[in-house]
């Protein structure tokens, strides 16, 4: 998914690297693991994907998965808050206010794969 | 059959620089044909010919090693950048540096931290990459590949083969 603002919740969030993607720009990336989700709070304006042609773009669209890869087009690193997320475990969370791209790295194990599979079409620049 | 042309080097040549004017054009008209020059003390030999099939196969093997070497060097450089970035973030998280110092450091020494993900994955580099991934102990995702090898990741299904030890499930929702 791609958006202008997102809420990311996961039991474990770690900063990963500082990368430059041609179609997006310079981003800080984060790797979320142990049950992760991201929710679009604000859509892109104009509502056009920059990274993947098949990205979800609408407000309210949500990704839930085991491992999540998040890239945020902002130079300031986020500090994570701790919240109570489930009955047993706490979770870390942060809310972005800039271009955010989130991609499932590993889906929840109990969910069967999509047939036909969802395509990932990287936008060339 | 190889041909050898000898040229006398200009008087201004040094140990690291030589200048020579060719008297004819050298054309490569067949597959596996080559032209290269070897400097001897006061002259340069230009050798033109065609690789035999055995030599040509050997040359392809050398090319494969060269491709792998480029990927190894790229991976080491990117992992070092990642390490430096994480060190910097750790300092910021521990409040050893503030936000302004962090931004100054990123502006001033961007080359130490920034990984450019802009290389394309063709069948040749895919072959070298598959070999390297097969030797690694860790399991990698598409994003790991992008960060380590600077490769713009695609749906690997398009390339028919799938590198072993790549975490499956990359066909999940974006």
Overall pLDDT of chain B, averaged?
78
Number of helices of chain B: 5
What is the SS-derived class of chain A?
mainly beta
Helix content of chain B: 40-55%
Biggest pleated sheet of chain B: 3 strands, antiparallel
Shape of chain A: globular
Residue windows where pLDDT falls under 50 for at least 5 positions of chain A: none
* Content of β-strand of chain B: 5-15%
Total beta-strand segments of chain A: 8
Biggest sheet of chain B, strands in spatial order? 1-3-2
Q: Considering DSSP H and I runs of 4 or more, what fraction of the residues of chain A is helical?
A: under 10%
**What are the segments of chain B in which pLDDT stays under 50 over at least 5 consecutive residues?**
157-161, 169-174
Query: What's the multimeric state?
Result: heterodimer
Task: Compute the separation of the termini of chain B in Å.
Answer: 57 Å
Using only C-alpha atoms, the radius of gyration of chain A works out to 14 Å
Secondary-structure blueprint:
The complex is a heterodimer of chains A (125) and B (174).
Chain A: E1 2-3, E2 5-21, E3 25-42, E4 62-65, E5 67-72, E6 81-84, E7 90-96, E8 100-106
Antiparallel strand pairs in A: 1-8, 2-3, 2-7, 3-4, 3-5, 5-8, 6-7
Chain B: E1 3-8, E2 33-39, E3 43-50, H1 53-93, H2 99-108, H3 110-113, E4 114-117, H4 123-135, H5 142-149
Antiparallel strand pairs in B: 1-3, 2-3
């Amino acid at each position: 998914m791609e958006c202008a603002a997102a809420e990311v919740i996961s039991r474990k969030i770690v900063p990963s690297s500082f990368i430059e993607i041609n179609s997006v720009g310079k981003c800080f990336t984060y790797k979320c693991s142990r049950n992760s989700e991201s929710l679009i709070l604000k859509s892109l304006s104009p509502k056009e994907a920059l990274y993947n042609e098949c990205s979800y773009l609408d407000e309210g669209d949500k990704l839930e998965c085991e491992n999540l890869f998040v890239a945020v087009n902002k130079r300031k690193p986020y500090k994570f808050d701790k919240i109570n997320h489930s009955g047993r475990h706490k979770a870390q969370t942060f809310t972005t206010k800039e271009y955010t791209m989130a991609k499932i790295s590993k889906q929840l194990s109990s969910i069967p794969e999509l047939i036909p599979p969802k395509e990932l079409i990287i936008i060339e620049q | 059959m190889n041909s050898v042309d000898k040229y006398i080097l200009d008087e201004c040549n040094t140990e690291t620089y030589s200048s020579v004017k060719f008297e004819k054009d050298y054309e490569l008209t067949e597959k596996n044909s080559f032209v290269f020059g070897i400097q001897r003390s006061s002259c340069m030999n230009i050798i033109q010919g065609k690789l035999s099939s055995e030599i040509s196969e050997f040359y392809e093997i050398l090319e494969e090693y060269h491709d792998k070497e480029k990927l190894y060097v790229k991976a080491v450089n990117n992992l070092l950048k990642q390490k430096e970035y994480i060190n910097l973030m750790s300092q910021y998280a521990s409040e050893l540096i503030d936000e302004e110092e962090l931004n100054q450091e990123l502006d001033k020494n961007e080359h130490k931290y920034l990984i450019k993900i802009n290389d394309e994955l063709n069948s040749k580099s895919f072959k070298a990459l598959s070999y390297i991934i097969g030797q690694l102990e860790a399991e990698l995702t598409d994003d790991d590949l992008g960060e380590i090898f600077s490769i713009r990741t695609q749906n690997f299904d398009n390339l028919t083969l799938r590198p072993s030890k790549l975490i499956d499930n990359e066909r999940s929702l974006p």
